[in-house]
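Quick one: structure tokens for this chain, please?
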Amino acid sequence: MNKRETGSKYEDVAAEYLISKGYLIEFRNYRDRFGEIDIIARKDGYLVFVEVKYRSSTSAGDPLEAITAHKQKQIRNTALGYIRYKHYNPDSMNLRFDCIGILGNDINHVENAF
């Protein structure tokens, strides 16, 4: 599998995990000029922007360590683009940024990660 296929496979795993936890998936792989958001979901009145990272082992570090301050800024800017695209009013919404790190078969979901 190439990097994109692997990423897509584990984004599917993360989406299935979120659905099993009661999330409603609104959009997958939203892209604009600022970047990409892997999963956009809703739960308990929140619009949740989710970044997914996968590692087969810790040789390259924990998957969550790959979500740097720069990546977080890109995700925030892309989230604003999505809100504008959908004509949502951000002042009347509860927004949250979550991360899902998948290490081998273990899933670590961090709510309100940044």
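The helical segments are 3-20, 69-85.
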